[in-house]
Amino acid sequence: MMSFEMNDRKKIGLGLTGFGVFFTFLGVVLLFDKGLLAMGNILFLSGLALTIGLKSTLQFFMKPQNYKGTISFGVGFFFVLIGWPILGMILESYGFLVLFSGFWPTLAVFVQRIPVLGWILQQPFFRSLIDRYRGKRVPV
Fold it and tell me: Who contacts 36 (Cβ-Cβ below 8 Å, separation ≥6)?
């Protein structure tokens, strides 16, 4: 059973993950700066390992259904390190989407509870998109 208490290790892990996302975003905005992208990847992965634990992280990446995403993310990371940041980020983005596609419905529910953004997502157009993505039948 996973505990949801926030100890110092998890707090540091969330901080590292946040900085990883920030550095990756900054690397993309600054025309695919390979140093910032590599730093973002390293911080993201180390933050993930600290947040959920090293064993859980390895188990997540080594699941047979996640092999395609893991390989794509790893090859993309390698391309960023050797100096091909655009190709690397394309591969990493694909791997990220494949790896974390199971979390999108949970994220959608979380975002719908944010005050202003949640109200926007409750509008009929967005609501039908969210319901269709979740696999619910949308009345016509």
Answer: 23, 24, 26, 27, 30
